[in-house]
Design a protein that fits this description.
It is built from 9 helices and 11 strands. The protein is elongated. The strands form 3 sheets. Strands 2, 3, 4, 5, 7, 8 and 9 form a 7-stranded antiparallel β-sheet that branches. It has a two-stranded parallel ribbon with strand order 1-6. It has 501 residues and is an alpha+beta fold. It is 59% helix and 22% strand.
Length: 501
Amino acid sequence: MKKSKFKQFQKTILLVAFLATGIFTAPAQEALTLAKALSIAETGSPDLQQSLLNLERYQKSLEAQRAALKSRFSLEVNPANYSKQRRFDNRFSEWYTNENFESNTLFTISQPILPTDGTISLTNEFGWSSSKSTLAADKSESKVFFNNLYLNLNQPLFTYNRLKLELKQLELNLENANISYAIQRLNLEKNVTQYFYNVYMAQMNLSIAKEELANTQKSYDIIVNKVNAGLAAKEEQYQAELNLSTAKSTVQNNEVNFENAKDQLKLYLGMDLYQDIMILADISANPVKVDLDLAIQNGLDSRMELRQREIDVENSQFNLIETKALNEFKGEMNLRFGITGDNKDFGNIYENPTKSPSVGVSFNIPIFDWGEKKARIAAAEASIRSQELNLSEEKKQIIVDIRQVYRNLQNQLTQIDIAKQNERNAQLTYEINLERYENGDLTGMDLNLYQTQLSEKKISYSQALINYKIELLNLKIQSLFDFERGEKILPNELYLTQDKK
């Protein structure tokens, strides 16, 4: 008997320990506000990270191009080069054998010239050479140190500056990427807000469904007591059971929707998917005074998409310049001045130096291309006109979008008043009919309709409040003006800086 009690005591201790361990190891639920969600998204959002990577790519490309404009130092080393060949001497019409061994280094300093697209370079070649030649019975041998120092200038003529054009294109690409990042940050705020309120609505739907289930359970208990007392027909109990099952099913469906909405929010924020969250939101919406003319003007002055369209126009113009260079008349000038010396003694290399100047000018003269260049230029000009049209249409679209958001805001204020009144009326109607149901003057099916109506009106009121807040945020994004605070949103504040990395 004592042994049995001891085993029971052991089981109890183990159960308590297991429950305690479960309590302390269970992940804590994190309360999430909209401000906190936005803060998490700033560092965790995959969309923003992708935009940052794209920005980094263009930043490094521009850095590389600027580095390429500085002096470049290179050293080429050839430790050994040996050859032995049988050759024919045209001067004496005889065959001879030549054996050659050479070792040399080539040091070059090259400097691109940005204003002219030319290149100036200083080259020094130093080496040692051993050469043996055998002609019939005669043998000759030469062993010398040699050094060749020369300055070279290569300058394109009658063509566009490719260095400047490429640098400008990279600068525009970086600016465009920075703008895209800034736009992504604005869209991030909008998307996070939308996902956040989706979770809030799912959470609210679940809460209302549970409240509806509690009311339905209460109604069911009332009708069961009446049926047991013989005060109501049996079919009333069947209807009450059906209503109760439906309410339980609705709760379960809303629980699933709530969990799905939380997963979508955590995925967009870049949060741990196994972290449980709870939404804390203030959906009260105070009417904000909006100046439509100010919104439109500030949008046209500040919207970054307009600068993107301007960049598209500039890139199209660069493309036209490159197209005109196809089959173009162009030239190239090459100037070289050097001094060469050789001697078997290292210290006497320049004892008898030889100057080696050279000048070369060449031209490329196209004659006939069957209209290729003309057609390509026409295509490039059409592309410019297309981009200019896109710029004009973008301005019109900004005006239309801001007008639509403004009208939606005014309409949402009306919808909030209507939804608020409808919720109040639905609550009063339900309370009146609940009393009628308790008195036996109303069927369970009729009461369920009033319960459903009340739930719908509560959800509609909350949705109307959220819609107003989202439209107000949309107006801020469209106009780059925060009417709640009464201040402009400066685009450069949205760009990436060292503090935001």
